[in-house]
């Protein structure tokens, strides 16, 4: 059974899945009876579950990077899937670890929309978007990464969410908010306060920066260098600008750096400075909430 098939079986059903351990946490309750939270992944998603029996054995025997058989019982609890009565064993099958790495298969309509949106941007922003994503054959590896990355987060590892699909969702949300809410008789035209093309570029860079928090080679895991994330992100944006022939002046680079890093950084102390920051943040939140329910 694949991880994304678990939701299809009935509550109380027994299951057996093969996956790659991507995270392991020891949890100690007040009564000091420890248990282990394991997260495993396959090519279709990931799932986290507790293993409460044989603590010493399981803690010594199973580690991140191990391929394991998981036997347990599916439980539906408050619209969430849980695994109970779990037993782990090392897989005896000769499995290529790479087939357990999640990958997103972007539909043509998603990639088509994204390409059309890039083409519509003002030239200087278009150059940055092309370089950052590798679109139009500018960088085959970047483009392949962009269209195949599973948009992973700890609460929803279903790979029906791809990085490019999430990005397209945010772009559409920004368009919709501007056209259907801001550009109405209730408000002045947004052209005076919002640089829409720059905002759409920020949304693209922001999505790319999210996946830079993670390692994606077989085991999807949070990078240990997260404290340096803002520095890494700022350097990345500078490098893309240089690679593109420096189409953006320093003032716009600073705007893009702040907008895409202020709530992706580790501290969380920064706040939105402009209406563009607010629109990016709320559009990202809207799409994330919708994905968590529908994917």
UniProtKB/TrEMBL annotation:
Biological process, per Gene Ontology: rRNA 3'-end processing
Keywords attached to this entry: Hydrolase
Superkingdom field: Bacteria
Gene3D superfamilies: Nucleic acid-binding proteins
GO MF entry, a single one: hydrolase activity
Any coiled-coil regions, as ranges: none
Matching InterPro entries: NA-bd_OB-fold, YhaM_exoribonuc/phosphodiest
Protein name: Putative HD-superfamily hydrolase
Source organism per UniProt: Clostridium cylindrosporum DSM 605
């Amino acid at each position: 059974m694949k991880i994304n098939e678990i939701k299809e079986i009935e509550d109380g059903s027994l299951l057996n899945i093969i996956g790659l351990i991507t995270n392991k946490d020891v949890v100690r309750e007040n009564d000091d009876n420890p248990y282990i939270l394991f997260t495993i992944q396959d090519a279709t998603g990931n799932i986290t579950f507790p293993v409460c029996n044989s603590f010493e054995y399981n803690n010594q025997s199973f580690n991140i990077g191990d391929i394991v058989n998981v036997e347990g019982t599916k439980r539906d609890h408050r619209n969430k899937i849980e695994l109970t009565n779990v037993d782990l064993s090392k897989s005896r099958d000769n499995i290529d670890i790479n087939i357990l790495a999640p990958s997103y298969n972007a539909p043509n309509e998603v990639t088509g929309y994204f390409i059309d949106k890039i083409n519509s941007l003002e030239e200087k922003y278009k150059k940055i978007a092309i370089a950052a994503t590798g679109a139009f054959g500018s960088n085959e590896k970047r483009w392949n990464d962009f269209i195949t990355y599973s948009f992973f987060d700890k609460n929803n590892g279903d790979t029906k969410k791809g990085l490019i699909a999430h990005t397209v969702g945010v772009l559409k949300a920004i368009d919709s908010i501007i056209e259907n809410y801001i550009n109405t008789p209730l408000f002045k035209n947004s052209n005076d306060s919002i640089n829409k093309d720059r905002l759409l570029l920020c949304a693209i860079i922001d999505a790319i920066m999210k996946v830079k928090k993670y390692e994606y080679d077989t085991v999807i895991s949070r990078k240990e260098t997260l404290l340096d994330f803002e520095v890494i992100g700022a350097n990345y944006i500078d490098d893309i600008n240089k690679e593109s022939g420096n189409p953006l002046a320093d003032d716009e680079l600073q705007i893009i750096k702040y907008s895409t890093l202020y709530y992706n950084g580790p501290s969380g102390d920064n706040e939105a400075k402009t209406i563009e920051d607010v629109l990016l943040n709320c559009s990202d939140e809207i799409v994330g909430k919708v994905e968590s329910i529908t994917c």
